[in-house]
Amino acid sequence: MAPGHRPTAVPEVRPRVGVSSCLLGAPVRYNGGHSRSRFLTDELDHHVDWLPVCPEAEIGLGVPRPTLRLQRREERDRVVSSADGADHTEELAEVADHHLAQLRALDGYVLKNKSPSCGLLALPVFDDNGDRVDGRGRGAFARRLTELLPTLPVEEQGRLTDPVLRELFVQRVFAHARLRRLWESDWLPRDLVAFHTRHKLQLMSHSPEGYRETGRIVARTGSGDPDEVRATYTEAFHRVMAVRPSRGKHVNALQHAFGMLSPLLDDTRRHDLLAAIEDYRHERAPLSVPVALLRHHCAAEDVEWTRDQTYLRPYPDDLRLRHAVPV
Ligand code: SF4
pTM for this structure? Predict the structure, then answer.
């Protein structure tokens, strides 16, 4: 590394992530099998601490066991056994309540799709005759989890095969961990200002209006009730981070960073950086190209404001998630 070159100074965090146990390879499915996700066990595993939970095992259904399904009874979706029709809905939901203290310390949750316990989206719901009546069911454990922790980043394993959704989820998990670490410290108003400043470009890439909204909350931090500021900022920050970035918003964030760096660059480097941003704008290059160039120049010029932006390193580099996002 050349003299004066410094890596970006965004401190590392190690998120805690809840997960359906079968996704980590535990043989807890109804048939004694598992649903191991290689992304989780071979890649994300290096950077997070897991909280594996199998709701069906926890309520004592055993392995192997009869399958469960969602059944509509008196206009409510119930999780019932295919063997004897026994209703396990409340027990499965209570698993989330039982783990509440641990769940509150999490930064994200990955749920097994298509499970009447863990499934988050679009589960089939049947009537008493076995006919499908709806396709928008949610598993009993997943429903209670999302009721208890509405701002927690939660995603289904099946959707994580989409590179865009995967990248968004991992961004949200690491951002959640950084904010959790701030709240767990003896934070002062200036610490929240610093946190918000470091996340400026990242928030802008999700929603420029969301960045301004969260900024107005930060502006109250010196005079407002700290607990109210904390609760309001937490809700707004995670809501903004859940908005899917667009190419236009990325270009806006990249140009903002360019504006901070531009006075320090010579004509050649300024031209190369602008060209990389334009290549990304016109779908000739992935986002990782202008971001890599920005990181290089920020380190070389040692521009603290830009160098410390979480946008330039939202999660550990070796996850390489931006490389997989289609141009
Ligand atoms: S989907 Fe959920 S309940 Fe089913 S085996 Fe996996 S962890 Fe257990």
Answer: 0.93
